[in-house]
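Lab meeting tomorrow. Look over both lines:
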Amino acid sequence: MDRLAIVVPCYNEEEVLDITVPALDEVLNRMIAGQKIAENSFVLLVNDGSKDKTWEIIERHHKENKHVCGLKLAGNVGHQYALTAGLITVKDMCDMAVSIDADLQDDVGAIEEMVDKFHEGKDIVYGVRNKRTTDSFFKRTTAEGYYKFLDKMGVKTIYNHADFRLMSARALKQFSNYEEVNLYLRGLIPLLGYETDCVYYERHERAAGESHYPLKKMLALAWNGVTSFSVKPINMITSLGVFLCFLSVLAGIYAFVSYFTGHVTPGWTSLILSIWFIGGIQLIAIGIVGQYIGKIYTEVKHRPRYNIDTLLTHDDVA
């Protein structure tokens, strides 16, 4: 019987964990009773340096429930790294792993369908939202625009997919070979290849608490996704530079003709505006190139992406 691990990154989730754990445990028990997964399947709750009582709640559930394990990271490293820590930790402890956020916005009922897809031979099963009605107009519009922008940039992603997915043990082991520091899992996982499929579900409102992904973090994740998987922004800068050079040649020809035809109009406005425009373009270009140089800087140091403080498992899981 195949063992399932459900990996849940947690950051300041004390308000929702007492709802999340029973919901996931119910899913495990239902699939165990249906003989779809092994009895020693488990949930791994990854504490990402929470400042509240998240770890104490994880320890309590670990003591009370044989299906609950805990992983405590030594400090806050961010959602993508916490999720990676959980996935790499369970890669030798399970036959398949499902990643899901603690807020229960992703439909836990879709996990069983993912497991069915795994039994059909799929190594990666993506959880995909069938609609975005729970999002605000701004978030819905920007999210859809972002996926389209990624596609234009040549980044391979799954439309309307976040980090709710199933991965087989061999997909997890292959994933562990990708050691880059600048993580964007939604773009990295499709690079693994293997047989894939999708499960469609309706996203719910957050079960409790507040979102830990404000606009600033979402924009940072979006920009990281572009610069980690595509050099097209640099190519666009080159194209813009060539275009501006072409315009400057035309402007030079116009000025030369105007001089000899006596239609010269002295003035500083056009000069200052053109200087500011070119200066702005140069600063943007330097900034974008600097982003790539910064990523090279963080990659070549080869620092650990996370450090593990404590791992809580049961004898039949470890």
User: Anything to note?
Assistant: The two ends are 17 Å apart (CA to CA). The first helix runs from residue 17 to 33. Residues 232-300 form one domain.
